[in-house]
Design goal:
- The complex is a heterodimer of chains A (about 325) and B (about 190).
- Chain A has about 325 residues and is mostly helical.
- Chain A has 15 helices and 2 strands.
- Chain A is globular and about 60 Å long.
- Chain B has about 190 residues and is mostly helical.
- Chain B has 2 domains: about 1-40; about 70-185.
- Chain B is built from 7 helices and no strands.
- In chain B, helix 3 (about 70-95) runs antiparallel to helix 4 (about 100-125), helix 4 (about 100-125) runs antiparallel to helix 5 and helix 5 (about 130-155) runs antiparallel to helix 7.
- Classes of the chains: A mainly alpha (about 325), B mainly alpha (about 190).
- Chains A and B meet through helix 13, helix 14 and helix 15 of A and helix 1 and helix 2 of B.
C-alpha cells in the first residue's frame, strides 16, 4: 500500500488524536547510555500547576461581602466598616485644619509636631497591626485598611516635616530646622523613606514594580526602627521633666507619658507576632483547633499594646483639640 | 525523612511557643507593674501640682494645670520686649524733650503704643485668683500712664510737654510698684 505524506495510508485522515509530539527532551532523543551524565541538566520533578491558594474565607469575611440597599444603590457591609474604621485616621489632619486655614503660625510652631507627629505614629501602628490581627482572627476583610493607614501615616509625617521646616525656631535655615538635631535627622530620614512608599502605594505602581514592590515596602520596618531612635533621642530613656523625660506630667503619670515607653509597649506585640517561629506556632495551634491557647498566650502582650496605645491616643486627642481650638499646649 | 521533617517542624513551633511565652510573661510583669504604679496616680498628681505650684482651681483632675512657670513664661514673653522698647522710648524722649517737639511727640506716641500693647498682653493672661487683683492693678496703673502719655504727646509746645513729666513719673512709680508686686507673686524675684 502506497504511503502518503499526509498519513500512513492514503485514505487515512489526520485527526487531532493522531498527532503525537516527538519527545523534545535530549535524553529521550538519544539512548540513555550514550549521553554523558554531567551534560544532562538536572531535571526538576514535574509539578502540576497549582494556583496560589487563597486563605479560606471566614464567616465574618463572608458576612462582610454581603451587600445591602442604600439610597438606590447596593453597598457592601465591608465598605461601610472600612470607611468607619478608616475615617479616624483623618483626625490629625482635621485637628490642624483651622490653624492651616487661618495661617496660625503659633499653633503650628507649638503643637504641629505633637498633633501630626503623634498622628503619624498612631497610623503607623494601626498599619502594622493589620497583619497580626489577620493572622490571629483568620479574617481578611479589613486588610485594605493597611494601605489606607500607611497613606495617612505618610501624609501626617510629611505635613509634620513641612510645618517644622517653616515654623520651628532652630537655627540653620530650612535644613537646620529639619535635621539640625539628631532626633530631627531621624524624623527627616523617616519622611524621606516614606515618600517612595507613598508614591508607590497604588495598584498601578504595585503592578509595575512586581516582586520589587514588596521589597520596597519593607522599608516600613526601617521607618519603624527609626521611629524608636527618634523618640529615644527626643525624650531620652528617663521620666524626669525636661530634656530626659516626658516633660511636665501634671497628672502624675510621667512614666505613661514617656513616648519611647509607649512605643515599646505597642511594638512588643507587633514585633512578636511577626517572628516566623511565632507565626508557625500560631498556625500549628490553629490547625489543631486550639485557638484558645493562642489567644491566652498573646493576651498579655496584646493588653500591653492596648495600654500603650491608649496613652498615645490620649496625647493625640489632648493636643489635637488644643490645635483645633488654636490654643496650643506646649506641655 | 518524613520523621525528621516532622521533628524539625515540632522543634520550630516549639521555638515560637517559647518566644511567645517569654514575651507574654514580660508583658504580664510590665502590665502588673504599670497597674500598681497607676494606683498611686492620685497622690502623685497632687504632689506634682504642689511641686509645680499649680493653682488647683485652674486644673481639673487629669489635665495639665497652669503652673507658676507657665505664668512666668507668658508674662516674661510680653514684659521683656515691651520693657526694652519702653526704655528705648524713654531715652529718646530725654534726648528730644528740650529741643525737638516733633521728634519728642513721635517718641511719646510710640511709647503709648508700647504701653497699650503691654496692657493687651497682660489682659490675655489667665492669672490664678490670688494674683488676679495684682495683675488688674498693674493693668489700671499702666492704662492711666498710657492716657497721660497720650495727653503729653498732644502738647503744643516743649514747655507744655515738660509740664507732664512729674505726673508721668508718678504714674510710672505706680506702675513699677504693681510690677514689683506681680513679680513677687510670680516668684520672679
Amino acid at each position: 500500500m502506497a504511503r502518503s505524506p499526509l498519513g500512513r495510508f492514503a485514505d487515512e485522515r489526520l485527526t487531532a488524536d493522531s498527532y503525537y509530539p516527538r519527545p523534545y527532551s535530549r535524553q529521550d532523543a538519544y539512548p540513555p547510555d550514550d549521553y554523558p551524565d554531567d551534560l544532562v541538566p538536572e531535571q526538576r520533578p514535574a509539578v502540576a500547576y497549582q494556583p496560589k491558594q487563597r486563605p479560606a474565607k471566614s464567616r465574618v469575611d463572608e458576612w462582610m461581602e454581603v451587600d445591602f440597599k442604600f439610597g438606590g444603590s447596593r453597598i457592601k457591609r465591608k465598605a461601610v466598616a472600612l470607611v468607619l474604621l478608616g475615617a479616624p485616621a483623618l483626625a490629625p489632619l482635621f485637628f490642624m485644619l483651622p490653624a492651616l486655614v487661618t495661617l496660625n503660625s503659633n499653633t503650628f510652631s507649638v503643637s504641629v509636631d505633637d498633633t501630626l507627629g503623634t498622628g503619624a505614629e498612631i497610623c503607623l501602628f494601626l498599619c502594622l497591626l493589620v497583619t497580626p490581627v489577620a493572622t490571629l482572627s483568620g479574617q481578611h476583610w479589613f486588610v485594605p485598611l493597611r494601605r489606607w493607614y500607611g497613606i495617612m501615616m505618610a501624609c501626617c509625617a510629611i505635613g509634620d516635616a513641612v510645618a517644622a521646616s517653616i515654623t520651628d525656631t532652630f537655627a540653620g535655615g530650612v535644613f537646620g530646622r529639619l535635621a539640625g538635631h539628631v532626633f530631627e535627622l531621624m524624623g527627616f530620614m523617616m519622611v524621606m523613606l516614606v515618600i517612595p512608599l507613598l508614591i508607590t502605594s497604588n495598584p498601578w505602581a504595585q503592578r509595575k514594580l512586581g516582586r520589587y514592590w514588596k521589597r520596597l515596602h519593607r522599608l516600613i520596618y526601617v521607618i519603624w526602627g527609626l521611629l524608636a531612635a527618634h523618640l529615644m533621642l527626643l525624650e531620652g530613656l528617663g521620666v524626669q521633666s525636661g530634656s530626659n523625660g516626658s516633660g511636665f506630667a501634671g497628672d502624675g503619670d510621667p512614666v505613661f507619658h514617656q513616648r519611647f515607653y509607649q512605643y515599646s509597649a505597642c511594638s512588643l506585640f507587633l514585633l512578636t507576632l511577626r517572628l516566623p517561629p511565632v507565626k508557625r506556632w500560631i498556625a500549628a495551634r490553629q490547625k489543631e483547633g486550639r485557638n484558645w491557647l493562642v489567644y491566652l498566650t498573646i493576651a498579655p502582650i496584646f493588653a500591653l499594646f492596648v495600654f500603650g496605645f491608649i496613652f498615645i491616643l490620649n496625647e493625640e486627642l489632648f493636643k489635637g483639640f488644643d490645635s483645633l481650638t488654636e490654643h496650643p499646649s506646649a506641655e | 525523612m518524613s520523621a525528621t521533617y516532622v521533628s524539625g517542624t515540632q522543634e520550630e513551633t516549639r521555638a515560637g511557643g517559647v518566644i511567645l511565652v517569654i514575651a507574654s510573661s514580660m508583658a504580664a510583669v510590665l502590665l502588673i507593674a504599670g497597674l500598681a504604679y497607676a494606683l498611686g496616680t492620685g497622690q502623685r498628681h497632687m504632689a506634682a501640682l504642689a511641686a509645680a505650684g499649680c493653682e488647683l482651681s485652674l486644673s481639673p483632675s487629669g489635665l495639665p494645670c497652669t503652673t507658676v512657670q507657665m505664668l512666668q513664661s507668658e508674662y516674661t514673653e510680653i514684659l521683656t520686649p515691651d520693657g526694652t522698647q519702653l526704655a528705648a522710648d524713654r531715652a529718646a524722649y530725654g534726648a528730644n524733650e528740650e529741643k525737638n517737639l516733633a521728634a519728642a511727640e513721635a517718641v511719646l506716641t510710640a511709647e503709648v503704643t508700647t504701653e497699650r500693647a503691654f496692657d493687651i498682653g497682660l489682659a490675655g493672661i489667665t492669672f490664678p485668683p490670688a494674683i488676679t487683683p495684682i495683675a488688674k492693678a498693674l493693668f489700671m496703673a499702666d492704662q492711666a500712664r498710657a492716657s497721660l502719655t497720650a495727653q503729653q504727646a498732644q502738647s503744643s509746645s516743649l514747655t507744655q510737654m515738660r509740664s507732664f513729666d512729674h505726673r508721668v513719673q508718678a504714674a510710672s512709680v505706680a506702675v513699677q510698684t504693681q510690677l514689683t508686686l506681680l513679680n513677687k507673686a510670680l516668684d520672679r524675684g
